[in-house]
Structures are given as C-alpha cells and as structure tokens.
Write a structure and sequence with these properties.
The chain contains five helices and four strands; from the N terminus they run ααααββββα. The chain has helices at residues 4-12, 16-27, 35-40, 45-55, 87-136; strands at residues 67-68, 73-75, 78-80, 85-86.
Length: 137
C-alpha cells in the first residue's frame, strides 16, 4: 500500500520551484495535483518510478512499512550483506542534510561579514594614520 504520509512529507520539504517541477513530471499537461494520490489511493508504476527517481529513492521506499533490502552477493572476493534502511532513517537523513546546508550558508555569511569587517578595519587604520601624519606636520 502506498505511504501517502511519506509522499506528503517529502513534497512539503521541497521549494515551490521543486514542487512545480515534480508536478510537471508526474502529471505532464494535466491539471492534477498531489491530491490525486489521496483520491485514487493507488498509483501507476510510471508515476511511482517518477517519484522514486525525483527523490533518489528505491520504489519500495514509498510503500507502508517499507525497508530497502539487498540480497547477499559474493563475487570478486567481495561480500555484500543484507542492508535494511527504515523510512524514518531516510527522513532523518534528509532532515540532517538540510540542516547541514543551512549551517553551511550561515558559515558562509559569517565569513563574508568577517571579511567586510577586516576591510573596514584596514580603511579606518589608514584614515587614522593619515590624520596622525597631518597632526604631526
């Protein structure tokens, strides 16, 4: 069964431009909105693939109580075991990624402020030096 709450949460986390882009990909030229999923309670495979591709998730990610699993594979002396990622971890990961981007933006803004203050400090020092020279003459 389709996890509508997950889709709503992911959709709400997008910017307006990203939301419009996703709507365009899902519904092409029709005037459907995300309410389509609530009305139909079903989704075509092509729409599900579009959602999965857009968010970079496997198809199973959008099913209720889904887990992303792989099988054991042995080849070239490499062993890959079962991997299980709950949907809550995916959402937490996405949230942490956004928080990190936000903190990066804050750091960049602070760096720019520091640079501006250094520039102003140099200008004030030069101005003070000029006034000291004039007073000394």
């Amino acid at each position: 069964m389709l996890n509508l709450e997950m889709i709503d949460t992911l959709y709400a986390s997008l910017s307006k431009e990203q939301q419009q882009s996703l709507i365009g990909l899902l519904f092409k030229k029709s005037k459907q909105t995300m309410n389509y999923f609530h009305r139909t309670k079903d989704i075509s495979l092509s729409k599900l693939e579009t959602l999965a591709d857009f968010f970079g998730m496997p198809l199973d990610y959008f099913r209720k109580n889904s887990k992303f699993k792989t099988n054991n594979v042995a080849g070239n002396n490499n062993f890959v075991g079962n991997v299980s990622i709950s949907t809550n971890l995916m959402l937490e990961n996405q949230s942490l990624r956004k928080e990190l981007e936000s903190k990066d933006a804050i750091i960049k803004a602070k760096d720019e402020t520091i640079e501006a203050l250094r520039h102003m400090n140099k200008m004030l020092q030069a101005q003070a030096n000029n006034s000291i020279k004039k007073d000394g003459e």
